[in-house]
């Protein structure tokens, strides 16, 4: 293994990435984001639509559509984009709502070290990793944590947000999900909601977030019956949603990331690697597919060697924080003021099908499918576009 090897699938922020699709939608609706629009969607097409539905389907990567080539979703996929890095919900969903790359919005991973609070946090849940305490108990208020402005606040029309009810009242959603909120408890409810919006005379934007495909994939695996059934449920719901649009309506759907299966042999627990664990100031942060490591002062190279020895072929590459930022994997800035400490001194790129879990008090926690890494299964996301003139 070469410790600074460049992976073959890298995030794109110049025209073929998630942020570029967001830019096409935002510009079409009179808002601005730093990224250029994607060639897959002309902002003028968005501007001409009276009702725009922009949906992020968590975990529904391009590989999921390729497993169902005759589906409505696959037939309306106009091309493939890349997720952000890491390919995970915290970083990508925040890009969906703000139009900013992870380097700029400052929420890079599911488990994020907050230097300012001295704790590892789960930013989407606004709680601590251990104990699941509200971050307010650690002195972290939503305002200082969620600093990026949602692009939809600039939109030239009323905005509504649609997501499961349990997400609506979270500090993350209150900041990022703009406009009137609608509960969505099943995908089949979406066509009726869109039909009601289509009956209103004013132009509308509906932002949709649906997390169940990702949750089922984590629990059962990408090829499981439960995931296949839910794919068909989503396929039918999105087809019906497109049919419910007026003639001047437009449906755009994408994902935050895809997933890759991991079997028991690919699960590496920090609790089984005591020498490596002893070198770290906190358990690995980031993602299981791309752990962020914080070695003790002066022990970066020693820790790099220990990772290589302990994990061997389970690791594709071990990157320094500086290398990750220099390569632009977290996208363009200006960099969030807390970005640097929120990325580990070392970022471990696990080989496909391998994860490093770092929860010392809950060993044995495993997921059948995972994401966060740079494999095509994790990084490739669809651009599904239907309707519009």
Structure overview:
This protein has about 400 residues and is α/β, with parallel strands linked by helices. Helix 10 runs parallel beside helix 12 and helix 11 runs antiparallel to helix 12. It is built from 17 helices and 18 strands. The relative contact order is 0.21. The chain has 2 domains: about 20-260 and about 375-385, Alkaline Phosphatase, subunit A (3-Layer(aba) Sandwich), CATH 3.40.720.10; about 265-370, 2-Layer Sandwich (Gyrase A, domain 2), CATH 3.30.1360.180. It has helices at about 20-30, 45-50, 60-65, 70-75, 90-100, 100-105, 140-145, 165-170, 170-175, 190-200, 210-220, 225-245, 275, 300-310, 320-325, 340, 375-380; strands at about 50-55, 75-80, 110-115, 120, 125-130, 160-165, 180-185, 205-210, 250-255, 260, 265-270, 285, 290-295, 315-320, 345-350, 355, 370, 380-385.
